Amino acid sequence: MALSAAASSLATRRGADVALVVALATALGIAVFRPGMFSGEPGSDRTTVGEQVGKGIGGLKSLGDTVAGMFESRSPGERAGGVLANLKQRRQAPLHQRALPKIRRPANPLGAIVSAPPAPPVVPAPSTPLFNVVNAAPAPPVPVAAVVPPGGPPVIFPGFTPPGGGGVIIPPPQTPPVTPPVTPPVIPPVIPPTTPGIPEPATWAMMLVGFAMIGRRVRRRRAVLAIAAR
Amino acid sequence: MQLPLARSVKVSLAILGCAAIATVAAAWLLRPGPEPSSHQRAPRSAPHPVAALSKTAEEGRVLLNQAQVTQALAAGTLDRPVKSLLKVDKPLHFGEFDWNDSAIPDGPTWVRIDLGSQLISVFRGEHEIGTSVIVYGGDNKETPSGTFHVLARDKDHRSSLYDAAMPYTLQLTNDGVAIHGSIVRSGAATHGCIGVPLEFARRLFDHARVGDEVVIIPPGRNSDAQTAS
């Protein structure tokens, strides 16, 4: 065997090695030339059934007498080619939003903008009960309620509708006027932002990788500088 | 005598290589043999003593003689001896089925599915007790062929892939191919499952147990067998 010869020529001076190589190469040869080694696919022995029982069709008058003929006679025939799978449809993936910020939309954004006053609105602090709401008789809703604190300018609450269906808000007589904190006007966006406030997971991953690379560079740079400083 | 360094390295490498190859070869030699499929098995002997069917059981049946069975085994139409088939004179329509298990003695339930002739046959022991027309996998989702075993039974299964009802499911493969009740009409196809009429599926479901054998014959096999014989 060529392999064993080559191997033994290489190892002429080591008797034990020669014996080992020859034995291994022999095992290899047996493995390679083992009959039927590469015919392991299923069905290679399928004809043995036929060989065992013989191929004779003696005793059968026609094809209709064979079992295959019986099956064939009850069959609707072979299916025409090119039949598409048209019984079931693949399920649609459920629509869902992921990692989108909460967008608060006003009921009527255009109206909110129109009714926004030029002066900054004043929002009362929730802790101090500034006003008492006196529910009057049901009246047509007043979109703009005037609040008149003593000694202060009129404060306009845009779009504020008291829960009684309308009414006049008057300050309590004992409470001294407290200047409420002034907050900048919050104008809701008419067009919701197309880019979500929270990045996609891929963006997160890219950012983390970037930070990792920066950190690595910094560490390497530090190490190089430390070596150079020696 | 000391070998030169390069030479000794070469020898060592050769030995190591041979050892590796020999290890692989030994592993190949000692590998466990493939699971014998029913095609490779010799035809089984009768599992129970030959009992002649009663007169009532013989009605509506075709009793096979030895020559027919021998020829069917040789041609590959059957993979085990069968004593009787249901007598179906006319071609079955889509959605039709035939079921007759009266006075058939007990035996293992097994199923033969011939994709070429679009037929399913349910056997109890060596006697056919039911047959129907099937629908099977389309061009891109072909039904696998071979010998399978019922992996699971589920009366009211719902396909997780296709969100479709699969009543009386007998699961055959781990990737979801199953026998189940379906709309059986001409020209229809499935995503790989075997669709049978609902009532037939119910009866088959009642008979089949987990582990029962299902032999699926690929299309074209039967016609080859006929031309060969």
Question: Describe it for me?
Answer:
The complex is a heterodimer of chains A (230) and B (229). In chain A, a hairpin with a 7-residue loop joins strand 2 (145-147) and strand 3 (155-157). Chain A has six helices and four strands; from the N terminus they run H-H-H-H-H-E-E-E-E-H. With 230 residues, chain A is mainly α. The two termini of chain A are 63 Å apart. In chain A, the strands form two sheets. Chain A has a two-stranded antiparallel ribbon with strand order 1-4. In chain A, strands 2-3 form a two-stranded antiparallel sheet. Mean pLDDT of chain A is 60; it is low at 34-59, 134-139, 141-156 and 158-169. The relative contact order of chain A is 0.08. Chain A has a domain at 2-32. Chain B is α+β, with helices and mostly antiparallel strands and 229 residues long. Chain B has a domain at 89-228: L,D-transpeptidase catalytic domain-like. Chain B has helices spanning 5-29, 55-58, 66-75, 198-207, 221-228, and strands spanning 61-63, 84-86, 97-99, 109-114, 119-124, 127-133, 146-149, 152-158, 165-171, 178-181, 194-196, 213-217. In chain B, the strands form three sheets. A six-stranded mixed sheet of chain B has the order 3-6-5-4-12-7, with helices on one face. In chain B, strand 5 and strand 6 (127-133) form a beta hairpin. The radius of gyration of chain B is 24 Å and the shape is elongated. Residues 36-49 and 224-229 of chain B have low confidence and may be disordered. The interface between A and B is large, with 64 and 81 residues.
Keywords:
heterodimer, A: 230 residues, mainly alpha, two-stranded antiparallel sheet, 6 helices, flat, B: 229 residues, alpha+beta, L,D-transpeptidase catalytic domain-like, 6-stranded mixed beta sheet, 4-stranded mixed beta sheet, 12 strands, elongated
CATH architecture of the domain at 89-228 in chain B: Beta Barrel
**Radius of gyration of CA atoms of chain B, rounded to a whole number:** 24 Å
Biggest β-sheet description of chain A? 2 strands, antiparallel
**CATH topology-level name of the domain at 89-228 in chain B:** L,D-transpeptidase catalytic domain-like
Mean pLDDT of chain A, nearest integer?
A: 60
In spatial order, strands of the major sheet of chain B run 3-6-5-4-12-7
Q: Would you identify the CATH H-level superfamily of the domain at 89-228 in chain B?
A: L,D-transpeptidase catalytic domain-like
Give the number of helices of chain A. Answer: 6
Strand content of chain B: 25-35%
Please give the count of helices of chain B: 5
Mean pLDDT of chain B: 82
E-strand count of chain A: 4
Secondary-structure element string of chain B: HHEHEEEEEEEEEEHEH
Strand fraction band of chain A?
Answer: under 5%
Number of strands of chain B: 12
Q: List segments of chain A where confidence is low: pLDDT < 50 over at least 5 consecutive residues.
A: 34-59, 134-139, 141-156, 158-169
Q: What would you call the shape of chain A?
A: flat
Overall morphology of chain B: elongated
The level of helicity of chain B is 10-25%
What are the low-pLDDT stretches of chain B, counting only 5+ consecutive residues below 50? 36-49, 224-229
